[in-house]
Each structure stands twice: as C-alpha cells, then as structure tokens.
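ARCHIVE CARD
SHELF: 3
SLOT: left
DATA:
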Amino acid sequence: MGWLSKLEQPWVVRALLALWRTFTDLDLSDALPADYRSVHAIFTRQLRPGARPIDPRAGMVVSPCDAIIGACGTLAAGQLLQAKGMPYALGELLLDPPLEAALHGGHYVTLRLTATMYHRFHAPHDGVLEQVVYHSGDTWNVNPVALKRIEKLFCRNERAVLCTRLTATGQPLVLVAVAAVMVASIRLHGLDVLFHVRYRGPHRISCAARVRKGEELGWFEQGSTIIVLVPPGLSLLPTLATGQLIRMGQALFELAASHPAGGEPG
C-alpha cells in the first residue's frame, strides 16, 4: 500500500481517490490547494492558514492533531486504558523508568487518527523538544476492534517517544507517536531521520528544538495514534470523553494554578 500510494500516475490517483471517497468521508476543503500527484500527497496534505484555530489561552495545552479520543484519564498506578477492560503499563510503553516516575499521577489522552484525517501533528504548548526515543516493533492495526482484542498493543507497535519540556513550568510533556498497519514511517521536523520498521540508527536522539504551541512537529505517512502524557500539575478538561472528535488546537489539559503559565521553568 505504501508503494501504491506513492505512485505518481494521474489515473491511479483519480481511481484511488474515487474509491476512497466512496467508502469514507474524506474532506479536502480545509487543505491547501494542491495538485495531488499521489495518494501519499493527500495523506500528508497541509491545511489552509487558519483552518485549525489554536486555543490562545496561555494555560491551555492543546491537541497535537485531529483525532477521535480513544481513551483518557488519570495515570492511576502507572496504568492506562487502550480500551474498556484492557489496561497496559506506562512503563512498558515508555521503557524509561525516570520518565515514568516524572509522569506518575498525571493524566493521558489517546488520540486515534483515521485514514481520512489530517495526518500532521503539532506542538501542544510552548516548550523545548529535548529528546526523541525510537522503539521498533510490530505494526498492528490500531482500530477499535484490534484494541479490544490484542493486549498491550501500543507497547508492541513501532513508536517514537517525543520528550518535550514546557517553557512555562519546566514540566515534561510527552507525545508517543504509534505507527500501525500501512503506517510504516514517521517523519519529524528538526531530525533528518525517517523512522520506520527497518530503521537501524540511534535508538535515543538528543535535541534542543524550541517549539511554539501549534507549530508543526511532523507527520505520519498515513494514520495512527498519538498518546499525550502529562505530569501532576496539569488537569484533564472534564468535557473530554471517549469517542469524541477533536481538532488540532482544541484544549486538552489546563495548567494548575500552582504552575502558572508564563513563569520560569522549574
């Protein structure tokens, strides 16, 4: 599918696009006008300026992507839910005990991108991208059926852990970009690296890239999942619910009063 999606043949693009629209709700009205030379170009399309308003409130941490909320809640006893009755351990997802400890007692939101959605992801808040850790693995489908049947799926799939630190408070904020079937690569700005199942480069890459809330960080080749992890001191908005459609730039978390936005890092 990856090979087919990158074919630059007009008749192939027209045929696949027509088939895609027959079975899905693909909407390109908010994308930048483009002469799509391949289906891959549609998957990785850019948006028109202003198509995704970014919540301007300084204390709000926003969604990095368009998605459906698959699960959300507190990191109780170091566990998250991938589906109802299907817990998994934060430690197995991150494979990083110090980072796990820093997030203990915090919150999470699992964001599932469908095939028709905008596939680029953005910074949830002003901060510094300090490190990217790549974990090779499987590429199981991440649809609801698979999540209810395959234990610890996110811990088994290929993933990139983006470790950022909030400028306002110095607290960590982590994005786990999970690849899946037909999504065999993840591209990140600032790193001249294409993460994919055959990647054999450094497992842990240090960086010091300053990012602004809403700034593009990278993209999936097609669609998958991003898990947003925050420590205590950030509260999950009570209006969020499993199954909710959310757009990039909408608020997910709020900085607590004890960690006011705009202060110096701790």
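SLOT: right
DATA:
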Amino acid sequence: MGSTLSLRIKICGFTTERGIDAAIELGVHAIGLVLDPSPRKLTIDRAAALKARVPKGVDVVAVCGRPSTEELEEIVNSLQPDVIQLMADATVPAAMDANWLFAFDDGPDLHKRIGEYVQSAKREHPIVLVDGPQPGSGVPADWERVRSLHGDHRLIIAGGLNAGNVGEAIRSLRPYGVDVCSGVESSVGVKDPKRMAAFVAAVRSAQTPDPVR
C-alpha cells in the first residue's frame, strides 16, 4: 500500500495541501477527510481538491459520522472515496455499495456492540475502529476495556493518540492500525509535519512484525 510499515496508519482531519503532502511523504496508509459537523469539516468540493493530491495506493477515507441517505449519495457520487467511515449506529442504505468502516465510541457496552457487528458483518475479519468516549475530542478510550476485546475482527485504535503514547498503545493492544488527528496538529485542522513525522517514527519503532487482528 505504498509504505514499508506493516501496521496501518491513518491520519485524519486534513484541511491543507501542505498537510496532505507531508503525510504522503511519510508513507501513511490512509488520509481522513472530515465531512461531519466539526471544526475540520470540509465541503465536498474542498474534499475533492485535497483528494486529488493523494496518490493511488493511499486510501482516502470520508469521515461522515451519521449522514443522511442524501448526504451519503452525494459523497459516493461526487467524492468517490476509497472508504466511508461512519459511527457504528449510523443507518446505511442496503442498496448502497461502498467500503464502510464503522467506528465505535468507547463505553461499558463496547464488547456487546462490537460482538453484534462482527456476527452480522458480511466479510471475514471485519475492521472495527474503536475511538474514545467522545470521538473527535482527543479523549482516549479505556485501554483496559479495549485490551480485553476478543473476536474475529481487525482493530484500529483512535482517540487521544500522539507520538508520546502511540508506542505504548501498540505494545499493549497490538492493533491492526492506528488513527490520529489532534495529536499531530499545531492548531485545529492544521497538521504539523514534524509531529506527523514523530508519530510515524513512534509507530515504526513500536510495531510488531505480525499485529494481532
């Protein structure tokens, strides 16, 4: 996928070309563009302009939260992202064909919700993203609860990650991938190349040869 890293890295919430270019140079696997209400929200046209800078082999993820059917149709038809990220309780039209990534906010019933999703998933080893209790806030999930997750899925961890703690998170949780947003910013929506480089270096240092699914 255009990188020597085996553990997947997604950096989310880009608003500038400079940030996109720096992330691509670092060899990240996925670029997240936010279309959900947020300080980092992009219009479809702006998202398309940023997407045009992303080469093949790097996934463009449209981060949508809980969109309406009409919003999803516009995203699929106009932006054509590689992946659409939704909150796990979002409604997905049965007839709509897209590569979905479901994000689960942390909470006492996390195990139950993920278990139900994995059982109903139509693909083998589905990917699940576990975020903090308030996605987008930079608050981490309860790593003890996440560590005890079991099941036939691949785990991406998000929420409060940065260069200082991502190594511990990887060694503790052994995920399929990591997702960072505010932890590599100089201000909201402005990605800092040095912080992104430090984050990628920390992932490279901590990753195991064969992350657990």
